[in-house]
Amino acid sequence: ENKGIDPKKVERIFRRINEMSAAEMRTELKEINRSTHGSTKELRYRLREFYRKEYALLGQWRDETRTKMRNRKRFRYLVAIDIEATCEAETNNVNFPHEMIELPAVLIDCSTFTIIDKFRTYVRPEINPKLSDFCTQLTHISQADVDAAPPFPDAWTMLMKWMAGYGMMDDNQEAEFAIVTDGPHDVHHFLQRSFLQYNMKIPHEFRHFINVKRIFENQGKEWRLAKGDGRTSISKMCEKLGIEMEGTAHEGLTDATNVAKIACALVVDKKIPLFINQRLVRVRGRPLCLPGPATEADL
């Protein structure tokens, strides 16, 4: 909190400055240790310049306070995820049945915006149980990793137990939380398909999420991420925020950790509030929900 700013006085001066007499302005200037000499025009200019800076500081202070209150009041935790799935070298095959092979999560404490815990389990695919060479090279997940891993329903139960240890996803639901992703695909494509494959219902809390990439790019032109250069959006956001990336791209837990670091940096360093900005939207005639903008009901 900036104790040097009296919000009410700053606003009062700005409302009345064009109506103030020379005597009133001299009184105000004397209080802030500024020269009281000169014409009415000079006095008004001097007073306005001082309080213009104070007004800017007031706006900054309010933005910081609003950011902290919005995040801390709404969420106790943020859970960053970045799912890895089976894949093949032929990227144009839209019918390839991607299956989850790594389910990671990184927990952020919203009272401090620091990472406090991590979870990871590999997941055994069933439609294509043998990983392609391309998939192994891309994700650094070995055939032995997935052969020894549980199928998705059991992996999901493990994640739920881990979250329940922090008061999330249990019967009492003591802790409010939000899912954080880099784009919509982790929820829309990989997670949703896993639930459909096993005829399971995706929890409501995972149908609405914070897409940090969208929040990042919505800050202005200079925040837009270049496309087609072979680099991941996570690496580009880390670079722009001055964050040292951990590990290698397309490693699920590593990517989830970097997404969590991006989320923390946006709030702590850039004073940019995080909020649920995407959700899964049902489309008639389609088995998969599509990613759409969040509504007031989601916030």
Automatic annotation (TrEMBL):
Keywords in alphabetical order: Cytoplasm, Exonuclease, Hydrolase, Nuclease, RNA-mediated gene silencing
Pfam families linked to this entry: RNase_T
Domain SAP: 17-51
Species: Pristionchus mayeri
An example molecular function term from Gene Ontology annotations: 3'-5'-RNA exonuclease activity
PROSITE patterns per UniProt: SAP
SMART domains: EXOIII (SM00479)
GO BP annotation list: regulatory ncRNA-mediated gene silencing
Name recorded for this polypeptide: SAP domain-containing protein
Gene Ontology CC entries for this record: cytoplasm
CDD domains (alphabetical): ERI-1_3'hExo_like
Matches recorded under Gene3D superfamilies: Ribonuclease H-like superfamily/Ribonuclease H, SAP domain
